[in-house]
Amino acid sequence: MNIFLKVAAFSLVMVAGFWGFASFGIPQIKPAPPPVEEKVDLGAMTMDQFIALGGKIFNGKGTCTLCHNKMGRAPMLSDIGKNAPLRLKDPRYKGTAKTIEEYIFESMTKPSMYVVAGFGKSGTNDTESPMPDVTGGGIGLNPVEVKAVIAYLQDAGGAEVTVEIPAMPKAGAEAPKAEEAAPLKTAQEVIAKFGCGACHKVAGQTGEIGPNLTKIGATKNKDYIRQSILDPDAVIAKGYPAGMMPKTFGEQMKAKELEMLVDYLAGSK
User: Which are the contacts of 52, defined by CB distance < 8 A and separation ≥ 6?
Assistant: First the structure.
């Protein structure tokens, strides 16, 4: 009986020790909250405030500075006011914009309409842009945020600010409810919709900003891959800074889409 009590007591002590170490000895990972839409009073906002809002989105939720920086991953935008009219006249331009404002909007939502030489996807001869549509995928800017970023880029790029601050919706007016989209059917569709290939080599895409995922399943299991999608800063891949990957995929992907993507990456060996 004494031996049993000693073993039981020893077991309790060990369990308590492991619990204490796990709770207090290991640094706890607390992921940053996902970017959220700015709550603004458009009716009381001045243009300077609207431009400042655009700058905050450009440097934050929009993740624009991950590529548009001095590292040369994407064109610098400080001269957009001078460069936009030249690009609209370029024979390679495929869009319909007539003004700088329209050009910037098109560049944010249909970036392959014009690809600056040297910044296209590998193998496309600068006909396809690696940049995703900022209104979808992991960025998801709403119409007000897009207009604010355009105003900021016009101001910062030396162009006249032609964007008008959107009007506040009328009191009691309800926004139309969008029909929920059906779940995507393949992992390749998930990768395309959420712009994974803009940063990663994956599924035939040639992004170079993030880790190469073509053989990720050879070294990482499903739990690691799932965590990297839902909480990308929990474990940072060697050689890459924190804060590069959007933290909103867990909110935007359906559970079925997430698991399809996890299965696909885990099987990429």
Answer: 152
Residue 209 in tokens:
């900003």
Nearest-10 Cα torsion for 45, 136, 205, 214: 100
Q: Tell whether the model's pLDDT for residue 174 goes beyond 60.
A: no
Is residue 15 a part of any domain in this protein?
A: no
pLDDT of residue 152: 96
35 pLDDT above the threshold of 60: no
Which of 138, 156, 174 is at the close of a domain? 156
Q: Is residue 94 part of a domain?
A: yes
Q: What is the dihedral of CA 135, 207, 184, 127, to 10 degrees?
A: 70
Count Cα neighbours of 29 within 13 Å in the Cβ-side half-sphere. 9
Pick the closest to residue 132 from 110, 106, 103, 105 (CA basis): 110
How many structural domains comprise the chain? 2
